[in-house]
Amino acid sequence: MAEPGVETRTRSSVITARAAATFDPVGRSVATARAFVRDTLHGWGYADVVDDAVVLTSELVTNAIIHAGTSADVLCLRTEDSVRIEVGDRYPEREVPLQATGHSFAGLDSENGRGLLLCSALASRWGVEYTPTHKQVWFQLDLPQRPVGTRSASPALPTALLPVADERVRVAVAQIDAAGAIAVWNPDAEIVFGYAAEQVIGKPLADLAAWPHTPGIGTGLAEALQLSRWEGSYGIRGADGRVIPVYASHLRVRDSQGEPSTVCLLVRDTERAVLQTPQRAPVTESRTEHNAADPFEVFIGSPAPDDLDGLLQRTVERARDMLDGDAAFLLLATDDETELEVRATTGLPSARQRFARVPVEAGSGRYSSARMPAVHEDLASVPGSVPLLGSTGMRSVVTVPLKVEGRLTGSLGVAAEAPGRYSNEEALRLQFAADRIALAVESARLGELERLRRGSLSFLVEASDLLAGTLDRDQTLALMAQMTVPTLATWCAVYTIADQASDPYLSYVLHEDEERIDGLKALLSKIAPPDPVPTPGARIWTAPGQAAQRAALLASQRELGWGTASPVSAGIGTTLATAAAVGGETVVLPLVARNRVIGMLTLGKPSDDHFRQEILELAEDLSRRAALALDNARLYSERVAISQSLQRSLLPPEMPEIPGVEVEVFYRAAGEGNEVGGDFYDVFPIRDGAYGFAIGDVCGTGPEAAAVTGLARHALRLLAREGFGGPAVLERLNAAILDEGSRSRFLTLLYGELRPQSDGSALLKVVCAGHPLPLRLRQDGTVEPAADPQPLLGVMDDLELYEQMVTLDPGDVLLCVTDGVTERREGTRMLGDDGLAEVLAGCTGLTAGAVASRVLRAVEHFAAEPASDDMAILTLRVPEPQVS
Q: Any alpha helices (H) in 722-769, and if so which ranges?
């Protein structure tokens, strides 16, 4: 005789699809079977019944594999209005518990028979079929009926209870094309956001949207625009730069040509009731009599939210309604099961509690552990027993654990303002509901963690690339702040420590709302910085919040005229806004590089908000990378400053005025850091109207080359002023370089003495020791070398150098360069001596400065790549006499 709810065959329906799989008798097959059923039903578009089907399949396959010890055959059958799943094993002798008989079900904690118990509770129909070698349990889940016409409606309300809106509600309409750019912008959008249509059409919506996003969690703007329908809150940056909170409804459409686009309806967030879809009432379908009162049917509803936050929020709302409570809360356990993190509440100040943590074991005794169900008839008699409900007015509470495979994953509680509201019967009902939802919550939590970890890895990789791409200290500070706000925190401040004897200095402040930055900076400047503790990890810093509260209180008192002659206080709005901005949790992470604290990274949340642990761990990883990047920037800045200072010390402080001769020098150091050493030049007075000039190039760069450069420049001046001629000066300099031993470097040098003549010409004595030859430009445009090559310095002991006489007539130019000019390359081409002579030939009639500028410009334009070698250009010109 058939029992209610148990059938041996299903109703006649047309099967439109089928999928089958066999799973080996090993533990991991249960998870594989769940994934098989979930993927199959999602592929069929049956998301409404996926959760129930997965739970039932998991229990039945567990019975087959774990308890019966045989392989399991899973068959999924699709019809137009239902789905049937069959699970078979090779162990036919099994007891079938039935309702409405004297035969009792197994206990809630019993493994035997729980799968059939759940079939009775969740399935529209179910049954068991036996053969001599097999047993097959099947269940059928009917799809919820979709009402035609009214989608949702609410009762008539008194006028005082209606949502508040502006005098005229404006609905901004923006249509976004397939590329994410704005294609339509209606007049209401122009009024609400301040942009004319021609200012925004063609621009990506992402340029205007302030999208709240945490790495790996939630949907980004680009993803939201691709969904068939999306509804929620974000911000639009108006024409005045302020972020306007909006509530939006997106609908994906396609035109007559098949091109997709997204229509976005947006209202101010305070007017969200205009667009917001009311929560769908629980689906109540006609079931057999024994299923009508089943709490599972009204607990989650259909379809279940597909995101963790939505699922948790739906859970607490349904738990509160199920036990007729005033508040409900759900906490998730940390990985080590030592703490519980508040993730969803209703009827409580959720903003204050979200992501706050409480210990799993609060003390001794049964009711102090979240691992066991507990009923508190009156919290007033045991104050502090449920820390989450402190100062909330709740008097009685029932809490039950969420467990998956014996492991604590969370805690679900319902509270009431009256004492004595709950008993063990309510605890049993809530525990039954918690067991129903635990698997779905754990699955969604693991999915969120996986997305977070992937997003965190991508975030850290991008952050590392950005930090490694600059060695500028200020830019590194800005990058640190911009990577944390708003991704990890609402605001951040970076303190730096110059050395161990210095106090922390507030170097950078950033808030997601630019109008809050000045107030935040002023607040932080008035309080003592956090202590530079090297201990890794985030630590709570309460000083900003306390200071902001004091400032807000004083500002309010001044506004009311308490204790002051002026009843009105300017800037109270800014003070209150700053207090709200830093009123949440504030944490400090040390910036440690090379075993030294070089600063602190401070992250903050707005009023009554908390950081979740995963975000703090991500911030800690970021702080380690940022500290090393900041220290590298500091070291690089110090090195550049030293290098530039030393380079300046190796060059003459100023050029002397030589009567009757124009002198111009250009010097370009190659490399981002302007490495010291390399090329040098000098022009200096000797005696009796004579002047010395030199241009040289030391082999290599760095400190060794700089030492030879300094030796050469100062030795030239000293020896020349002692009366030595050019060859004697260079021979003694050669000996001094060789005396440096292993620190010596060979040196190419052009040295000369210049003496202006009374007839307007200039007499030069020149020695060219291994250096590019000086070029002489005559008035007729001819160019010729002005000296012969001789051995370079720093190689041989015995040098026999000689000087050559050169006369520069009025209008003549002497051009002296280093090899960075002549060896300028573009692929296989090189400028060379001939190319330089060709450039110089076109400089007839130009001043010394104009000649040097044209040569430098020709060298720079010769190749697209920046110069890889230092360049020095020394130009001497005897001007033509002025015609009166």
A: 726-738
Which residues, at least 6 apart from 101, have a Cβ–Cβ distance to it below 8 Å? 3
pLDDT tens digits, 290-303:
444 334 344 555 55
Q: pLDDT tens digit string along 784-798? A: 999 999 999 988 888
In terms of residues, how long is the chain?
Answer: 884
Strands, sheet with 82-89, edge to edge from the N-terminal-most edge strand: 17-23, 72-78, 82-89, 135-142, 125-130
Give this prediction's pTM: 0.48
Phi, psi of 452 (to 5 degrees): -65, -45
Cβ-based burial of 644 (10 A; exposed 0-12, middle 13-18, buried ≥19): middle
In three-state secondary structure terms, 683 is strand
DSSP class of residue 48 equals: G
The string of pLDDT tens digits covering residues 750-807 is 999 999 998 889 999 999 999 999 999 998 899 999 999 999 998 888 888 999 999 9
**Beta partners for 691?**
685, 754
Give the distance, in angstroms, between the CA of residue 233 and the centroid of all CA atoms in the same chain: 21
pLDDT at 743: 66
* pLDDT reading at 256 higher than 90: no
Instruction: Report whether 508 contacts 601 (CB < 8 A).
Output: no
Q: Are 401 and 407 in contact (CB under 8 A)?
A: no
Question: What are the pLDDT digits (tens) for 182-239?
Answer: 999 999 999 999 999 999 999 999 888 887 654 544 567 887 888 878 888 888 988 8
Tell me, what amino acid is at 862? F
Phi first, then psi: what are they for 482, rounded to 5°?
-70, -25
The CA-based angle 267-273-277, given to 5 degrees, is: 105
d(C-alpha 250, C-alpha 231), whole Å: 6
* Angle (nearest 5°) at CA 603 between 602 and 607: 130
- State the Cα–Cα distance between residues 301 and 279, nearest whole angstrom: 10
